[in-house]
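testing teh design pipeline on a random one, pls ignore if ur not involved
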């Protein structure tokens, strides 16, 4: 049997998608055009497979309820057409959607460097060059949905952006995804009760922006970003979530920046290597049973705690500054120790 390459002309949502190829094993078929309309397929089928290839999108595709979109990760690619800065996929008020095995690629490949960074919340405003572009946008009460085994890069807003979604009995789960070279990995405002595992974010301005409560993350990595994790307080029910067995390493500015959080955030069995931990006007930050090799700066706020934690001194670990910049604060330091010393200096990290 003779194998013959044919050109696939793909159409998503009525839009022409070029440069995709497939194999045809039917010797009776000459070169032909195969049309793949994702928007139409989602209306007609509960399960849609995105074939391997580079599929360019210049209009947001809205995913209906009760749909499964799958592909072969690394091969099934949804790519923003040049100049398109909207969301590639949007889940707007839907339920029971599953997305897996897709590689998402935006149209923004570079961001400006930092300028005039200081250890206050104004640092957030010093980032330049933020542009639009979202991989998946989850909003308006979307629930009982699952995004897993996907990869994202080159998004000027966020790889995954969530706004007021999830719920106590109807989470939006995110598992086994990798994100890189974007403004933000995950930007979550008000998506609650939606646990996530095995998120990997590298080389972004923000690994994660979290303005939400009741969110829990495990076995995740936020490495080589400018700010690993930014915990904000603009959402009324912010914080009181947690991170387990995760790392925040090699951040350019802050590994963890708690900006006015009200109800606390727990970090259990986590590691921070390089990049300050900065707590500003925050309450209930609890870091326990992990490793810190970074400075800890506390400015204002109420009671926070670091306990049962090992400190290493390669990147400033063991330098703890309470009352930073003259603002009173309370940081409880209990049962901490220097991993590379015999204990003579442990009093520096306990009170």
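output:
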């Amino acid at each position: 049997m003779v194998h013959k390459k044919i050109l696939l002309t793909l159409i998503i949502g009525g839009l022409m998608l070029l440069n995709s190829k497939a194999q045809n094993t039917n010797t009776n078929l000459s070169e032909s055009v195969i049309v793949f309309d994702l928007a139409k397929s989602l209306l007609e089928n509960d399960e849609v497979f995105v074939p391997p290839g580079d599929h360019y999108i210049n209009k947001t595709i809205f995913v209906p309820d009760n749909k499964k979109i799958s592909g072969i990760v690394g091969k099934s690619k949804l790519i923003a057409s040049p100049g398109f800065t909207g969301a590639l996929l949007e889940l707007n008020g839907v339920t029971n959607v599953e997305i897996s095995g897709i590689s998402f690629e935006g149209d923004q490949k570079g961001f400006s460097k930092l300028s005039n960074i200081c250890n206050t919340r104004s640092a957030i405003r010093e980032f330049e060059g933020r542009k639009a572009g979202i991989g998946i946008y989850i909003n308006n009460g979307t629930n009982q949905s699952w995004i897993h085994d996907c990869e994202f890069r080159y998004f000027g807003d966020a790889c995954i952006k969530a706004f007021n979604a999830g719920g106590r009995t109807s989470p939006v789960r995110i598992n086994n995804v990798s994100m890189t070279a974007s403004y933000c990995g995950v930007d979550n405002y008000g998506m609650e009760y939606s646990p996530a595992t095995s998120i990997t974010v590298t080389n972004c301005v923000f690994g994660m922006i979290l303005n939400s409560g009741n969110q829990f993350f495990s076995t995740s990595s936020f490495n080589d970003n400018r700010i690993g994790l930014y915990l904000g307080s603009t959402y009324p029910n912010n914080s009181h979530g947690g991170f387990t067995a995760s790392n925040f390493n090699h951040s350019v500015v802050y590994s963890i920046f708690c900006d006015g959080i009200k109800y606390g955030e727990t970090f259990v069995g986590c590691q921070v290597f390089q990049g300050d931990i900065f707590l500003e006007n925050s309450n209930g930050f609890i870091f326990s049973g992990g490793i810190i090799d970074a400075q800890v700066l506390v400015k204002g706020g109420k009671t926070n705690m670091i306990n049962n934690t090992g400190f290493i001194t390669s990147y400033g670990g063991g330098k703890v500054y309470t009352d930073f910049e003259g603002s009173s604060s309370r940081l409880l330091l209990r049962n901490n120790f220097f991993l590379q010393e015999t204990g003579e200096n442990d009093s520096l990290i306990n009170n």
